[in-house]
Amino acid sequence: MTATVLVIDDERQIRRALRSELAAEGYNVLTAETGEEAMRLAERTPPDLLIVDLGLPGMSGLDVCRAVRARTRCPILVLSARTMERDKVAALDMGADDYLTKPFGMDELLARVRAHVRRWRDQFTPSDVLTAGDLRLDSAARDLTVRGEPVKVTRTEYEILVFLLANAGRVVTHGMLLQHLRGAAHEEDVQSLRVHVARIRKKIELDPARPRFLVTEIGVGYRFVNPD
Fold first, then answer.
1. Least buried of 45, 51, 54, 135, by fewest C-beta within 10 Å?
2. CA distance 71 to 69
C-alpha cells in the first residue's frame, strides 16, 4: 500500500515543491497550511509520516507534534528555519523524530523520508505465525485456530485480525484499520467496522460481551490484548 506523507507548512512554495518531489517518489501526499487543517486531514487519512514546520499560524508546529504523538507513533520530521539548539530540543521533546533546517537539500530530505517510512512500515509487517493465549493465526496458510479448534473467518475479518495481532498492545484507531483495509479512511465505514469486530469476537472470545482479546478503546478504536 502506498505510504501517505502529510506536509504541514504555511509557505505555498514549500508545499508545492514537496508535493511534487514526494509524489514523484511514489508517495500519496497530503498538504496543509495550518495545524488545525492538518489534524483534520490526519483524522480522515492517518499518515505514515508528517513533515511539519514549527512556525505555523494558529496551532504551532510544537502543538501539532504533541497532538499527533498523543494519537499515534508515526514518525514526525520537523522542517524549520529555526536553527537554535533549544528549538530542536523542544521539538524532539514534543515527540518529533527528526529535525531538518531550512534551506535544505531535497535529496537529503527524501532519504530521511524513505528511512522513516521504512522503519514505520516494518512495525506492521507480521511474522508468519501470530499467537495470543490460545489463539493462533498462521498468516502464510491463512489458518486461524482458537483453543485448538479451526475457526473460519471472512477475508475482511482475517485482515483485521492480522493487523491487530501484529500490533498487539497498541491502540489501533478506526482510521488506521480502515486505511489498512481500503487504503483510505471514511467515517461512514466505522459502523461496518464495528460489525466486523462484533463477528470476530463471537468467533474468538469465550464471552463476546466481555472480551479478553479484542478490547474497545471508546471513541478511538481497538486494542488487541495478549494474555501471555
1. 45
2. 5
- What is the spatial distance between Cα 141 and Cα 69, in angstroms, rounded to a whole number? 36
State residue 185's pLDDT score: 46
* Cβ proximity of 178 and 163 under 8 Å: no
Residue 189 has pLDDT above 90, yes or no: no
The string of pLDDT tens digits covering residues 12-44 is 999 999 999 999 999 999 999 999 999 999 888
> Where do the domains of the chain lie, and which CATH numbers do they carry?
4-122 (3.40.50.2300), 129-224 (1.10.10.10)
Q: Residue-wise over 169-194: b if at least 16 C-beta within 10 A, else e?
A: ebbbbbbbbbbbbeeebeeebeeebe
**Alpha carbon distance 97, 66 (integer Å):** 12
Cell numbers given for 218? 471508546
Which residue has 514549527 as its cell numbers?
A: 54
Whether 75 contacts 52, CB under 8 Å: no
| Residue 137 phi, psi dihedral angles, 5° rounding | -125, 120
Higher pLDDT, 104 or 133: 104
Rounded CA separation 29/73 (Å): 19
| Residue 174 DSSP SS3 | helix
